[in-house]
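Reply to dn_fold:

You asked what the input looked like. This is it:
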Amino acid sequence: MEVLNGVGGEGSVAMVAMAFAGGLALFLHGMNGVTAGLRGLAGSSLANMLGRASSNRVKGVLTGILVTATIQSSTVTMVLVIGFLSAGLLTLAHSVGIIIGANVGTTLTAQIIAFDIVAYSFGMIAGGVLAQFVARRAQVRQLGTAVAGLGILFLGMGVMQGAMAPLQEYQPFLDLMAADRGPLPGVLIGAGFTALVQSSTATIGLVVVMASQGLVPLETGIAIALGASLGTAVTTMLATIGRPPVALRAGLVHVLFNAIGVTLMLLLLRPIAALATAISPGAEHLQGRARLAAESPRQIANAYTIAKTGMLLLFLPFTRQLAALVERLVPPRPGELGAEPKYLDTSVLSAPAIALDLARKELARMGRRVITQVDGAVPLILSGSTDELTDLAGADDEIDDLHEAILTYLRRIGDGQLTDGQSQELTDLLEVASYLELVGDIVKHDLVRVGQRRIEEGVPVSDETLAVVSDFHAMMLDLLRTSLAAFEAEDGELAQQVLEAKPEVNELLAAAAAFRATRIAADAPQRVAAYSRGSEAIEHLRRVYTFAKRIARTVRGTGPGSSAPGSE
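and this is what came back:
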């Protein structure tokens, strides 16, 4: 794909620059396609993998390698880690292994692009685009996006190779590259270019392209590739802006790992280059620049893998110490998470499966606050003071704030492309958010008002009335807890228990009604007012069960008869 036959003619420099820029643009666009396709294909398994990685450092490292190799982007892995740290799903100590592993996972990309498979790029693009248009299953379309992206990536490499080919005969450029200035300039070039294009893969791809044209000596190429690791620190630190301090700590782990590791590897640059040369295919039948062009791409890829693996082995025994050092640099603050949303990570909105899973966790957290509010309601409405009732009503403000944040997050998920299953899950989550908010309103507006009227009217509450209302309250609270547990765990059998409790609830309602009938006929002070307050309390609590059933019906696996609309 040679663009020009030489450099120096009128307009030739501009043509080389445009061809190179176009090739680089194709490369970056293809990389985005690969990342988006594979990340969508992996779906919620990424979150599950990261969650399971917290057991030990070795598993964390392997998870970081696997996730990064899968989605072809250490930056995306770092953004996910920062998001999960911000959400409290990972601890800093356990995330260090994942961060280290992510840096090694990028070496797979270097190995892939070191192979000369540009000739297959058009077939990959055609096949990937065809899958996007023809396939019915979302997973196949996402795979098509990844394959087409990979084809565009290789096509971009081919264009850049063609743009650089004339430089083989351009003596000023050859003299510039041949000058021995040590590894530091190469590191700075790699770091600067990576920070500019926000992709270490693009930098490594550029080095491989230049090596394939015989333009980059081995040690210079290794230095530029190592510099790309430092450049990723810029992207990582940008991802920590506006996040809790724990996210900044994760970014510092990434920065320290690469800064210290790259420095050590530069001291071992010549042994690494010698080892890479020994294990890479040779081209002894060629001479000079032709031999350099044939051997250097594989040598650079192998040297990059050796260096990154060496960095991993050096740091692996010291993950806890590294986490402790970073926590000293950025000390924890009291109440870092507070009452703000804990799981709503906007950086994963482009991965709906992960975002929906985080929204479910936040809803479960909101549900626990609602349960706490309902749990404290009956003792206060029957015997609490005005100040205590005011505090009970005020607790709903935090629930309302969470509700608003969750709805905003869910709407942003809905703005993306969702599968049919994800669309249904989004609808279910929106409904559950509304149900929980309504239960909170029952406490704030209805039950609190019952307590306020009791105080205004000076209504005495007998021990018998307290026992009846408390028994009914305990049952409603237990059913609400069960429905939320079923929702959080997506447990259809548990949800069915809530739906099948209706006869038992009706029986308890009938018993309470019979008791109230005896109380209205009794010779007791303010018996009519006492009867009314008790009846109101039980009726409002019955509505809690209505919403518990509706939450249970959103759980897949409930019986067909129990999920009929309107069957309360």
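The chain has 25 helices and no strands.
Hope that clears it up.
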